[in-house]
Amino acid sequence: MKIEKEKADFYTLWDIIKALRSENGCPWDKKQTPQSLKKYLIEEVYEVLEAIDKSNPEEIREELGDLLFLLLFIIYLYEEEKLFTLKDLLYLTAQKMIRRHPHVFGEEVAKSAEEVIKRWQKIKKEEGKEPSILGNIPKSLPALQRAFRLGERAGRVGFDWEKGEEVLEKIKEEIEEIKESLNNLPKEKLKEEIGDLLFSIANFSRKLEINPEEALKLALNKFENRFKLLEKEIEKRGLSWEKLNIKELDQIWEEIKNHYEPNNY
User: Where does the record place a coiled coil (predicted)?
Assistant: First the structure.
C-alpha cells in the first residue's frame, strides 16, 4: 500500500485500520478490543506529554500521530459493533463545540478567558453534564493532578484561599497534626493526615499558578539524574555502597549538586 504525502488525510488512517481489521488483516489488530487498548491509550497520552516537555517538533508529531491512530482504532471498534459511527462522533463533537462557544458562533460576547470558563460551566450544567460544581474529574487521574483540578473547580465559586501565604499556614497546621499523630494513630488515620498535607501542598502550588504534577515530575527527574551521577561518582572513586554511611553519601551528593548546574536536569 503506497501513500502519497499530498493525498494523505484523516481517512487514510481509517482505511488502514479497516485493512488491519479485515479477514486477511493483522492477527494482533483483529484480536483487540476497547478494553485491551486502554493501557496503550494511557501510554500514548504520556508519551505525547513527554514529547511536548522536550519541545522536539519531530517527536511531538510522531507521538501525536500514534495517539490519533489509536483513538481512531478504538472508534472503529465501536463502529464495527454498530454502537456509533465515526460520522456520529464527528458531528456530535462539532455540535457540542459550537454550542459551548456562543461568543464565537453566536451573538454572545466574552472579553476574558475567565468569562469563557464560567459560561462553559453554565452551559454544561444546562446540558445536565455538570450536576456538581466539581464536575466529573476522572478518579483515574494522577492524584496530584486531580487535587489541582478539584481545587481549581472549587476556587471558581470562591471556596478558596485568597493568597498562597494562607495555604502555607494550612500546610504548617497539617505537618503539626502529623507530628502529633506519628505515635498514637493507626496507619490508616496517618495515611489520611498525609493525604491532607499533600492536598494542601497541591493547593499551594495552584495558588502560585504552578501545576503540582509538573513540579513533582521535575523534582523526580532531577533526583533520578543526580542519583545516577552519584552512582557514577561512587564507581569512579572506587568506593562501594556497602562501606559508605549516609553522611558520606550525602557529602558526595552535595558535591554533585554544587558541581552541576540545575539546567542539566
Answer: 161-188
